[in-house]
Amino acid sequence: MTAVSLLGRRLPALAETADYSLTIGPCAFEVAPRKFIKTTAYNNQVPGPLLRMRAGAPVTVHVTNQSSNNEVVHWHGLFLPPEVDGAMEEGTPHIAPGASATYTFTPEPAGLRWYHTHVMAGSDMKKGLYSGQFGVLWVEPRESRGRYDEEFFLTLHDWDGTMTSSDDGSMSAVYGVSTINGRTLGFGEPLRVKQGQRVMMHVVNTSATEPHWLALAGHRVRVVALDGNPVPTPTTVEMLHLSPAERISAEVVMDNPGVWVLGEVRKHVQAAGMGIVVEYAGSSGKPKWVQPQTLHWDYLQFGTKPIVESSAELKATMVPLIFESKFAGHGAMDRWMINGKSFPDTETLSLRKGQRYRLVFKNKSRDDHPVHLHRHSFEVRRWNGRETSGILKDTILVSAGKEAEVEFTADRTGLSLFHCHQQDHMDMGFMMLFRCS
Amino acid sequence: MFLTLYPEREILLRDRYRLLLYFAVLALFATAPLRARAQGNYEVQVYGSDTVAPKSTMVELHSNFTPKGSTKTDDGTYPTNHQLHETLEITQGINSWSEVGFYLFTSWQDGHGVQWVGDHIRPRVRVPDSWHWPVGVSVSTEVGYQRSQYSPDTWTWEIRPIVDKSIGRWYLAVNPALERTWHGPDTNQGVGFSPAAKVGYDFTRKISGGVEYYGNFGRVWSFSALHDQQQQLFAVTDLNVSPKWELNFGVGMGATSATDHLIIKAIVGRRFNWGKQSPVD
After folding, report:
1. pTM
2. On the CB side of A266, how many CA atoms lie within 13 Å of its CA?
């Protein structure tokens, strides 16, 4: 069952009977001692409240918009109908200032999802994903995937952004502050653990534009899920890499007592605040950081060998999507194009229900693009020239000048939005719609 | 891309006051009742507000040839006609909001050969991006010596506010510079006003064209007569072929009798990064 109802005024009875309530409004929060950031957030907190839902169990979420802008909440990674998915381009109604909406839907699939605003920001670096409108959505599986002694949900975000000319001649965002769960390194409560525990870290990159590299000093982490979906080959790695909107679930065996830093690997980003202290019970002292000297990440280490395609799979319809930019001046953001056109002029791709499609991404631009398909998960089949299978995601990084291929089955009727999850790229036309019928 | 918190910490309140104090001291100097005269065409450039990044050095060669200049000796200085000026500018980034530049001026002219003209030093600070100002702003101050054969005022000082802004394909920059002489005939003549400005347009990502203006009005509050002012207009092009290179070419016309009538200029700059470049920096 899915439904959305828009209310011109808040009806207390509906809000009280909803399973969850979110209020969009102004929020000032402390990221570092005596350093406050003013933003728009859910329930006056950053990140928004952790929403725990159960896969297959219908829920009602009441959203009140006390901000001065039209808003909409996108349930990122869920398989929802377009009227509740949370993208106005698909047909989800916006919530006007002072108005409310009640969303009723059945959360699927299980795993690490998140919710966030899905409005344009343009040059307003306080709007859209530049703001604090994000939160973690955990969909409990019907059957337990394993027990952990501790479970931490971590959101990576960048604040205080400015659009500046970059070396490649285009405008891009730079940030003054970076946080984990809305706090800079050393401020706020540490993650408290005990020796011998198995800890699950669920990490979401909620940044509007920035990829992040994350490592836990003194430990290695075992990646078990990408974008909330279990990977075929859980693998232990030194560091995690998350493009905007990507999620990683990784387990850690706490076998090295002390006080450690879980932080951004790049020095200047950690210096901007992105880090959190991990403190073993009985340990004290200054948090230790062990600086990696290189950056390494490869999606394909979590996949399996490419399957020999059956005749059915050979029927996947190839859909080439070429990403390019159009220069608009050193004092303007580039216009982004898919197959030569910018949204809303991009072609709406007609999909036949039940048909398998292979999206062939060719990034001919100088920027990386974490592209996201709404209402679906796709299987990564090829990345940077190498084949793979078994990795299910809803957002994948297509690096500058590189190619990637993903497959999905068009099994959800209606409109589905496909876009780059960088706010500035999305705002400047990097979107298109798929219509399944 | 990121701003680090290091520069932001460096520019906390205490440092902002220090920066303001620095500006105030420079302004105090500028109010002295002096007059200065223009330097020769050794560095013909309208400054943008950006500074060279830390651990980086910008090396620029300014080449300026005067096909039509003065033909007579003026105040003991050589005529500028057919002079070729080669200026080496080396600018070192200090941190994300300051730099120091050094200049070596030379001149070649038939009959005089290659001559060392002088040297200048130019520290500069800028408003950091984290202040979120709607325009780019920086201030440079330039002090230096030039030989009397090329400038009767041998020791000069300049303060140059720099404001710029990119709007779409358009680029605007203004440098309302003030000059004074520390040693030479104009020592007691007060502060001179030497504005420069630029309007550019991005034809493509790599090719920009525009107009640069350079003037010297004489004393502040008491401008010289028009024919004694220096007024130059350049048609220029900037080639943005790479972040490592800076290329600017132009042809300038002098509009008054005190101005060289025709100048051809070229700036070729190369940026060098120092230290081991690490992906985790």
Report:
1. 0.87
2. 20
